[in-house]
Design a protein that fits this description.
It contains 11 helices and 5 strands; from the N terminus they run H-E-H-E-H-E-H-E-H-E-H-H-H-H-H-H. With 251 residues, the protein is of the alpha/beta class.
């Protein structure tokens, strides 16, 4: 319910979609530059901007940093994502049109769902190393200090979504292949693999319900059931013992 409520609020506020912006480690020197770029993209692409923090900053109130970002825009253009719930933040990212921010983990979530993404440099090589190893070649890692950041956002937003979805599917398949190989080599049984998302009891129950539905859709079976009911009613009305009672009497 939390997930549905939080995303519903964003969809109602920004019906054309939104840019998810993670701000916790964006350098102060880059803040104004990013705000100007986001403002231009938001206005030209008719997208909202949703700010959130993935990491708690020591010595600072959780929401204090977000208010500064939100208040840099008109009320209709930007909003704060107030939830700290992990799955709500993941849902915000996976429903966004574009991710931009300082958090690598948020980028990875977006990559798993085929969402366009670009990072603001935080002075480490973590994003560069990750993108070199795992990213699609059409998806850049970070803003360049010398480029127009608004144009960089537009270029990222313009990447073919089908490429991002295909890359996501490829990564999922590669993971499960590696996971299956690990299980075979170590002898550890895999409890959840593609196509086996339920236990044997659940599969048996689903199969039984499926047979029951097929039986009810068969006219001959339904006619036999109605005939059996009529005979039972006649036996009960005449006082004659039922089949079950006759068997008990013989026993």
């Amino acid at each position: 319910a939390w997930d549905r409520d939080s995303i519903t609020k964003m969809r109602l506020r920004f019906p054309n979609g939104w840019i998810a912006v993670e701000t916790s480690e964006i350098p102060e020197a880059e803040a104004e530059r990013l705000i100007e770029a986001l403002r231009e993209v938001s206005e030209r692409a008719d997208l909202g901007i949703v700010f959130f923090e993935a990491n708690q900053i020591a010595g600072r109130e959780r929401r204090a940093g977000l208010r500064r970002w939100v208040e840099s825009f008109p009320e209709w253009q930007a909003a704060e994502f107030a939830s700290d719930h992990l799955w709500e933040i993941a849902s915000l990212l996976l429903h966004s049109r574009l991710y931009c921010g300082s958090c690598l983990s948020s980028r990875i979530i977006c990559m798993s769902g085929g969402v366009a993404r670009i990072n603001v440099s935080t002075g480490t090589n973590a994003v560069a190393s990750y993108t070199q190893l795992w990213e699609h070649e059409a998806m850049r890692g970070e803003f360049s200090p010398t480029e127009d950041w608004a144009e960089a956002l537009f270029e990222t937003l313009a990447v073919d979504l089908s490429l991002l979805q295909q890359h996501s599917t490829w990564l999922h398949a590669r993971y499960f292949e590696s996971f299956g190989r690990f299980c075979r080599e170590t002898g550890i049984p895999a409890k959840l693999v593609p196509g086996q998302g339920t236990i044997e009891h659940h599969r048996a129950a689903e199969f039984r319900h499926h047979l029951h539905d097929e039986w009810l859709q068969d006219p001959e079976s339904v006619s036999g059931l109605k005939l059996l009911d009529r005979r039972r009613s006649v036996n009960q009305g005449s006082g004659a013992p039922s089949t079950l009672n006759r068997e008990r009497a013989v026993g």
